[in-house]
Amino acid sequence: MEFTRREFLKVSGATGLGIAFGRFLSPVKVYAQELRIKGAKETPTICPYCGGGCGILVHTVGDKIVYTEGDSNHPINVGRLCTKGACVYQIVDNDKRLTKVLYRAPGSTEWAEKDWNWALKEIAKRIKSTRDANFKATEDGVTVNRTEAIASLGGAALDNEEDYLLSKMSRALGIVYLEHQARI
Ligand code: SF4
């Protein structure tokens, strides 16, 4: 490909301008980044979205999250995050986030706000009555401590210890259908 003198000057001028801008913008971006986390507290944590367990650094000023990024010292993700992990701050900073218990009674089309005490008692009451009414019996009529009327479904955000407790509690209740969201 051949250039005339005028074309050469045009191309080299534009390239020079591009390089000049590149050199000029890069430190500004770095500076803006520094400004955003200047004075912020850095807290390492683990992404709650899936069992990958990527490391995240959360920068906070007071109780406000100002920046999150992949933890470059974490052995699993070495600083990288998928799109879900990159948007993790939205778990906290989100006006669509549910913070109250909503209950829709059987047959109703409306959701009603309830407090946590009511919800926990109601869940416990229903687990107990369902379990007691559905204990299995052997062929000769002996009731065994097993119910097939309740299932437990774990979520990918649960960690090892939470899964351990959930499966222990389920087995103690006689639940045999233990599943995990990631497997379905
Ligand atoms: S960043 Fe993505 S891959 Fe890593 S744990 Fe979170 S959801 Fe999973």
Distance between termini? 58 Å
Number of domains: 4
CATH architecture of the largest domain: 2-Layer Sandwich
Using the alpha-carbon principal axes, give the shape: elongated
Attached small molecules:
iron/sulfur cluster
Radius of gyration: 28 Å
Q: Mean pLDDT score, rounded?
A: 85
Outline of the structure:
This protein has 4 helices and 8 strands, in the order αβββαββαββαβ. It has helices at residues 5-37, 83-86, 116-133, 160-173; strands spanning 41-46, 55-61, 64-70, 101-103, 112-114, 135-137, 143-154, 175-180. The structure holds iron/sulfur cluster.
Task: Break the fold down into its secondary structure elements and pairings.
Elements: H1 5-37, E1 41-46, E2 55-61, E3 64-70, H2 83-86, E4 101-103, E5 112-114, H3 116-133, E6 135-137, E7 143-154, H4 160-173, E8 175-180
Parallel strand pairs: 7-8
Antiparallel strand pairs: 1-2, 2-3, 4-5, 6-7
Bound molecules: iron/sulfur cluster.
Question: What keywords describe this structure?
Answer:
three-stranded mixed sheet; elongated; Phosphorylase Kinase, domain 1; 4 domains; alpha+beta; binds iron/sulfur cluster; 184 residues
Structure write-up:
The chain is an alpha+beta fold. The protein folds into 4 domains: 1-38; 39-96, Phosphorylase Kinase, domain 1, CATH 3.30.200.210; 98-130, no CATH class; 134-184, no CATH class. The chain is 38% helix and 26% strand. It contains 4 helices and 8 strands. The chain is elongated and about 100 Å long. Residues 14-23 have low confidence and may be disordered. The structure holds iron/sulfur cluster (SF4).
